[in-house]
């Protein structure tokens, strides 16, 4: 019996559906509540009425019509706006999710559907032992890719069974928060920096984790490539518009999975969203390095990023006859064969290496010297309806500008022209086999981009000039500490490209072990026969055969980072005042307006010159203000404008990271920069 006092003038009935597995118990419950009852009180009443003895701690109320969680248990129903017409679901916050990793393996694990995606990704990365989770996010597969998959499944005579790695027994998967110890370097599992296998000092960690030795090898080691037939069945973007579709599905980092329509056991892609890989350390990052390598590899195989034939052969050589072979041999190794090293001792030895300073004798010289390059180069200016004009000049590079003179003797006077490279686009124009070492400069001018080519004689002349141009485009001079590493990186990449055919290479028995067409994109399998491909890959292999497994992966990543299109995420936009659509490329340090028909850059805007940006949520327009009173505004046509807004804020957030932060992240700052005020 219910007393009359319970039927007060302000009480009403609230319908709550309970998501439980007990078939004999009803799922819908009517609760008599008042507006001043808090959410915690509603949950308590509900559990008392259900009368099922079980742990309800992971359960929370989900408001179906408003698509939101009622997680603030001290708020009243009135404050939340819940009334008698509300449909509430009492359901678990942690649910199963299938994630397709960059290496195309699928893992199944429990993820928080009530935490914002930024936090959920952080927890996922703790399970997978990937540091720097802020560089990753979750992506819905594009519609075109899904259509191609459905067509493939339809044409397939046999039912497709996907090999799924089940990681349901992890602490996070059980509904508990990830152990904070995983983010402490002394607690993080360490790896052999040569082979990438778990070091013996942390084998005990793997025994308590879902990442057993076998599971760890799936995530941390590369595996044989797919067949050309499988590659042909995968979605490959053909145009800039196709590439823009790939980036349309990024989830909002400031909202939960459930709020974005993701259901239990759905499949999402876990990908590196931001192309700024901070503090890569082979000792701790075997899984992270392998997954970055795999994302780069698939981007090249599926032609999501363009590269020359010479570069494609280098990528093929690093994959085919090195990474794959070493991975297969590494799997056969016994993880416990290494000498036992105390974990604390290992951490101290790593600290010693980390704290080891560079050569300090050059510091004073770097401060007092004003670096300068001066040499004879050839200048090429493309002309419409005529041949390119190629002329030799005396070039002087100082600060962020390059000037050229008629000859060395006239360098004391006024230059013929002075080119300010700050904010320009620098594109390598190199063919090592043809002895072509060019630098393509796209310099911003009032009505677009001024195209200039510099031609160097050889790689030793090219590397310092190219490095100087790259730094100048970012507003840095040759006095910057990154100049000499940049020169070294360019030279090492050129050295990989510079191969000569050895007579015994063609008859190398290794060439019959693997199909060479598995390691290049379809364009090259159509162009060359398998034997021709094998011979050319073996030529390229001569320069990479002495590397270790991890070194080969890092060199692959470095070569990927050297490609002109690296790190660009494309979106179709309409600029304010324009009558046609353009493509906007978003990179870690700049925005590029690109002609959708030709693919040529029109204008570049650097983040370093950006004063502020905001979004008009009513008309979904992004507005950005740069130095020198430059204003741009655009609406996004291929995705929600929130995605671009988050990309810009995310890159600015990542630029604030430093090694002395002890890997702790200012999550509030991330949401402040990326969240927006809808």
UniProtKB/TrEMBL annotation:
Q: Which family does it belong to?
A: Belongs to the kindlin family.
Could you give a GO molecular-function term held by this entry?
integrin binding
Q: Do you know which PROSITE patterns this protein is assigned to? A: FERM_1, PH_DOMAIN
Q: Do you know which Gene3D superfamilies this protein is assigned to?
A: Phosphatidylinositol 3-kinase Catalytic Subunit, Chain A, domain 1, Pleckstrin-homology domain (PH domain)/Phosphotyrosine-binding domain (PTB)
Supply the source organism for this entry: Dromas ardeola
Keyword Cell division in the entry? The reply is no
Show the GO cellular component annotation of the record. Answer: focal adhesion
Keywords tagged on the record: Cell adhesion
Please state every residue range assigned to the domain named PH.
378-474
Q: Which GO terms describe its biological process?
A: cell-matrix adhesion; integrin-mediated signaling pathway
Entry-linked InterPro entries:
Band_41_domain, FERM_2, FERM_central, FERM_CS, Kindlin/fermitin, Kindlin_2_N, PH-like_dom_sf, PH_domain
Q: What is this protein called?
A: FERM1 protein
- Which residue windows are coiled coil? none
């Amino acid at each position: 019996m219910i007393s009359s006092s319970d039927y007060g003038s302000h009480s009403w009935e609230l319908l709550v559906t309970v998501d439980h597995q007990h078939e004999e118990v009803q799922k819908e419950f009517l609760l008599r509540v008042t507006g001043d009852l808090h959410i915690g009180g509603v949950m308590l009443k509900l559990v008392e009425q259900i009368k099922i003895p079980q742990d309800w701690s992971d359960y929370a109320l989900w408001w179906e019509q408003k698509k939101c969680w009622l997680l603030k248990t001290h708020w009243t129903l009135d404050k939340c706006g819940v009334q008698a017409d509300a449909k509430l679901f009492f359901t678990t916050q942690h649910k199963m999710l299938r994630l397709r990793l960059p290496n195309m393996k699928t893992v199944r694990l429990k993820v928080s559907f009530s935490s914002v995606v930024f936090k959920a990704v952080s927890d996922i990365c703790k399970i997978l032992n990937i540091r720097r989770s802020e560089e990753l996010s979750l992506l819905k597969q594009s519609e075109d890719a899904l259509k191609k998959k459905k067509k493939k499944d339809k044409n397939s005579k046999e039912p497709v069974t996907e090999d799924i790695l089940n990681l349901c027994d992890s602490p996070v998967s059980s509904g508990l928060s990830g152990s904070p110890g995983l983010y402490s370097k002394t607690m993080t599992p360490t790896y052999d920096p040569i082979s990438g296998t778990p070091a013996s000092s942390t084998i005990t960690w793997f025994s308590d984790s879902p990442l057993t030795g076998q599971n760890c090898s799936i995530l941390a080691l590369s595996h044989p490539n797919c067949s050309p037939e499988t590659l042909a069945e995968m979605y490959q973007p053909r145009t800039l518009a196709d590439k823009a579709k790939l980036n349309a599905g990024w989830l909002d980092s400031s909202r939960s999975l459930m709020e974005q329509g993701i259901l239990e056991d759905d499949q999402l892609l876990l990908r590196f969203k931001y192309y700024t890989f901070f503090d890569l350390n082979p000792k701790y990052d075997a899984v992270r390095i392998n997954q970055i390598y795999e994302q780069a590899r698939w981007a090249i195989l599926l032609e999501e990023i363009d590269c020359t034939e010479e570069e494609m052969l280098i990528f093929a050589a690093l994959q085919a006859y090195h990474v794959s072979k070493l991975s297969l041999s590494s799997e056969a190794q016994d993880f416990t064969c290494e000498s036992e090293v105390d974990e604390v001792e290992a951490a101290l030895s790593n600290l010693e290496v980390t704290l080891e300073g560079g050569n300090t004798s050059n510091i004073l010289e770097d401060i007092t010297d004003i670096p300068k390059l001066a040499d004879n180069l050839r200048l090429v200016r493309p002309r419409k309806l005529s041949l390119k004009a190629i002329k030799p000049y005396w070039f002087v590079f100082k600060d962020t500008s390059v000037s050229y003179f008629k000859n060395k003797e006239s360098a004391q006077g006024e230059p013929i022209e002075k080119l300010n490279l700050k904010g320009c686009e620098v594109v390598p124009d190199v063919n090592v086999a043809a002895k072509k070492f060019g630098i393509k400069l796209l310099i911003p001018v009032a009505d677009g981009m001024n195209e200039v080519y510099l031609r160097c004689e050889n790689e030793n002349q090219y590397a310092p000039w190219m490095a100087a141009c790259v730094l100048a485009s970012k507003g840095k001079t040759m006095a910057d500490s990154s100049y000499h590493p940049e020169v070294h990186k360019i030279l090492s990449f050129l050295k990989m490209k510079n191969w000569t055919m050895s007579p015994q290479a063609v008859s190398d028995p290794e060439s019959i072990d693997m199909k060479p067409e598995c390691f290049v994109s379809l364009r090259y399998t159509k162009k060359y026969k398998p034997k021709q491909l094998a011979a050319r890959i073996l030529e390229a292999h001569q320069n990479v055969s002495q590397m270790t497994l991890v070194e080969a992966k890092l060199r692959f990543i470095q070569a990927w980072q050297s490609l002109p299109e690296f790190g660009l995420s494309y979106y179709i936009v309409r600029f304010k005042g324009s009558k046609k659509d353009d493509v906007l490329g978003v990179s870690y340090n700049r925005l590029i307006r690109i002609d959708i028909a030709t693919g040529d850059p029109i204008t570049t805007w650097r983040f370093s010159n950006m004063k502020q940006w905001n979004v008009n949520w009513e008309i979904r327009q992004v507005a950005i203000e740069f130095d020198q009173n430059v204003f741009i505004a655009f609406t996004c046509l291929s995705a929600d404008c929130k995605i671009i807004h988050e990309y810009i804020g995310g890159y600015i957030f990542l630029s604030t990271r430093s090694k002395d932060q002890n890997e702790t992240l200012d999550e509030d700052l991330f949401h402040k920069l990326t969240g927006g005020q809808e």
